[in-house]
Write a structure and sequence with these properties.
Layout (H helix, E strand, L loop, with lengths): L1 E5 L3 H12 L3 E5 L3 H10 L15 E3 L2 H5 L4 E4 L6 H8 L8 E3 L12 H8 L5 E5 L4 H5 L4 E7 L2 H11 L4 E6 L2 H23 L4 H21 L10 H10 L6 H10 L4 H10 L3 H16 L4 H11 L6 H7 L3
Parallel strand pairs: 1-2, 1-4, 2-3, 4-5, 5-6, 7-8
Antiparallel strand pairs: 6-7
């Protein structure tokens, strides 16, 4: 198949290696010429050191060239860029199935990625792929498992055929809402987990946080009309477990800085040089929870710690309070 990956970040590039391994013809697009120039010159991503990209890859900054006459389009841009990219796609889009791996909720509209795409592109052939997998692990071809959610059989089957192999497992789901909720909120919970680690607390306390959070996430999924059991999927518990326990997680590492009492300058520097999706998502989740009248006090507390200067140790008090 002819497949384009929109976004030349670590994860989009890593997924491109899976697609190429499965004998697909892969084009990588970025809006940034310096990114494409680097990939073309070095056949290696600066974000995936040591992973050589096949000479067969094509690279472009031309969106029309990237998305026309393709069998699948993979959207792997940062969540905040999905709106602008899909808006630009309108002029050239010809109905190709889409797979979105961007996770999060738009700040102003509280729309999930699936709905952002639908806002601009007249198609139901959209699938969401989400699960516990760091880019470097995907690129190194270690066994990983992800949830593939959608309500359009053609989109699901196209994505499955493009990606699935003996180390890249996909489990199909019809619950787009639950899959997107899990993919978005796990980044926020990972920040809280990092805060606990930065405060010097062990894995036992972090496990407590993860377990408590699963209940809250399940209630939000149900409140939004999704299937609560999705919280136990690759996209749910699997991704939350990985993101909330590993220093490879940018969200966890950001939270750890806060828990350790890093200066505002250090925190600002980290945000400047690192994409912390949980920060982008936090305000959106809080607004969404308020709109749907679903109780998720952990979200309010994380927001107060990060944006209102509340003592990070209040997270411990929150966890040990009596039911």
């Amino acid at each position: 198949m002819k497949i384009t990956v929109l976004g030349a970040g670590a994860y989009g590039t890593a997924l491109s290696t899976v697609l190429e391994e499965n004998k697909n013809e892969v084009t990588i697009w970025s809006a940034f010429k310096d990114e494409i120039d680097y990939l073309q010159t070095n056949h290696e991503s600066p974000r995936l050191k040591g992973i050589k990209l096949s000479e067969s890859f094509k690279f472009t900054t031309d969106l029309k060239e990237a998305i026309t006459n393709k069998d699948l389009i993979v959207i792997a841009t940062p969540t905040g860029a999905v709106d602008e990219v899909t808006k630009q796609m309108q002029e050239y889009y010809d109905g190709t199935p889409i797979c979105a791996i961007s996770k999060g909720i738009e700040q102003d509209t509280c729309l999930f990625v699936y709905d952002v795409i639908k806002k601009y592109l007249n198609t139901d052939e959209i699938a969401i792929m989400s699960g516990p997998s760091f880019a470097i692990d995907v690129a190194n071809k270690v066994p990983v498992g992800l949830t593939l959610a959608g309500q359009n059989k053609k989109a699901i089957d196209t994505v499955y055929k493009a990606f699935a192999n003996d180390h890249f497992k996909l489990r199909k789901s019809y619950d787009i809402v639950g899959t997107e909720v899990c993919g978005a909120i796990k980044n926020v919970i990972a920040i809280a987990s990092g805060i606990l680690s930065g405060l010097g607390l062990p894995e036992s306390t972090i496990a407590m946080l993860i377990t408590e959070s699963l209940h809250d996430i399940k209630e939000l999924i149900k409140g939004l009309g999704g299937n609560g059991s999705t919280v136990y999927s690759f996209a749910g518990f699997g991704d939350l477990l990985l993101t909330a326990t590993s220093t490879k997680s940018r969200n966890f590492s950001f939270g750890k800085l806060i828990g350790e009492g890093a200066s505002q300058k250090e925190i600002d520097e980290y945000i400047k040089n690192t994409t912390v999706e949980g920060l982008y998502t936090l305000k959106s989740v809080r607004k969404l929870v308020d709109n749907k009248a679903v109780e998720m006090p952990i979200i309010d507390l994380i927001n107060d710690i990060i944006y209102n200067g509340k003592n990070p140790k209040t997270l411990i008090d929150f966890l040990i309070q009596k039911p």
